[in-house]
Amino acid sequence: MIQALLVYNLALFLLTGLMLFTLWRKKDQNPEVWFILLAVTQLYLIILGAIAFPLNVFGRIQLLTWGLFLHFSLYLVGSILLLRTQKRGFSILLACLLGLNILVAGDAFLVEPHWLQISRINISSPKLEESLKVAVLADIQTDSPGPYEVRVLALVAAENPDLVLLAGDYLHIKDPDQYLDVVTSLNKIFREADLSPRLGIYAVPGNVDWNGWEQIFQDLEVKTFSSPETLDLGPLTLTGLGLLESGYPALEVAGSEKFHIFLGHSPNFSLGEIKGDLLLAGHTHGGQFQLPGIGPLATASVVPRSWASGLNEIHPDQYLLVSRGIGLERGYAPRIRFLCRPELMIINLNTGS
Fold it and tell me: Contact at 8 Å (CB) between 5 and 62?
């Protein structure tokens, strides 16, 4: 990945310089037209260059962010300097475009990744004999547990929930030499948070979790699921799914007479024959990067994009609730969020229809 970044950025530095040299040569011959032609060419080559590298989708997105936020911004700066005297109005327009690009980059890299939102959802059911508060944390997905995760769990504790559900992807670590230290750090953070919901804490695995992921909750009162299991919690029934089952879109699972919650990592299982009242998942991160009027560009799931985050009634009296998650995709992926803040979900389950 490092080699790809070096080659890609060096090529784009040379390309941007060539574009600006061309614009300088043509600045007396319809410079607005030449700017647009060169900008379109640069953006095309930014995208084509990212696709051409033999990387996974996250690596290619990483290259695209360098191209769009660094090199296109440099092209805008150079164009403003070249045209500021003879095309003052056009230069002001370019400055506004540059400012917008910088604002998007600042929000995506610096603001939103830790701008936690507490999403409160109300669901009523005649199957419930008492009101309950459920906290859902999905995709903590950190490689360096620290103050942010401490703050998240402190907010959970402050809500005093009756039930805490953890929807997988706790650590995203590539280096096996670091793994045990990071497991210990996250375990310590959970221990110091001292969560004690009366109906318990339950956790399912995610796709980035290693074998033995249960070590994260060692010596904690957390029930972990590695395969489907159904538990009677008193006022409701809970089924925890293994990773394979949560990703299987043709899954069939029977329900119960009580209000029935299904907890899985991927939302794909919601496309199957699931006889539950509330289906909970994470995995999608809400796409992490959304565009106005379009939504997430990718969701890493087969459910409709409109289901990739938030609450949806997918069948009469059956709800799918997908969290945007707490953390970020790591590895080769750029650590960004845009119009897709991380969230802690607090579900108020109420009696009645």
Answer: yes
Cα-Cα-Cα-Cα torsion 123, 126, 132, 135, nearest 10 degrees, comes to -40
Asked if 326 contacts 140 with a C-beta cutoff of 8 angstroms, the reply is: yes
The helix/strand/coil state of 172 is coil
In one-letter notation, the amino acid at residue 96 is C
Tell me the C-alpha to C-alpha distance, in Å, between residue 216 and each of 57, 162, 187, 281, 304.
Answer: 29, 22, 5, 20, 32
Query: So what's the pLDDT on residue 177?
Result: 86
User: Which H or E run includes 314?
Assistant: strand 310-315
38 and 82 in a single domain? The answer is yes
Are 268 and 290 found together in one domain? yes
Inter-residue contact 337 to 113 (CB < 8 Å):
yes
Distance CA 123, CA 134 (A): 11
Residue pair 60/53 in contact (Cβ under 8 Å)? The answer is yes
Concatenated DSSP letters for 70-88?
IIHHHHHHHHHHHHTTT-H
Summarised one tens digit per residue, pLDDT across range 285-327 is 999 988 888 888 888 899 999 999 999 999 999 999 999 999 9
Contacts by 96-100, CB closer than 8 A, 24 or more apart: 98/73
| Span 36-51, pLDDT tens digits | 999 999 999 999 999 9
Whether residue 322 sits in one domain with residue 234: yes
**Domain count across the chain:** 2
Q: Is 319 helix (H, G, I), strand (E, B) or coil?
A: strand
Q: Compute CA distances 347 → 119, 121, 136, 342, whole Å.
A: 8, 5, 8, 16
**DSSP annotation of 154:** H
Does residue 97 sit in the same domain as residue 150?
no
pLDDT above 80: residue 197: yes
Confidence of residue 57 (pLDDT cuts 50, 70, 90): confident
pTM of the model: 0.90
What domain range includes position 33? 2-111
Same structural domain, 126 and 91: no
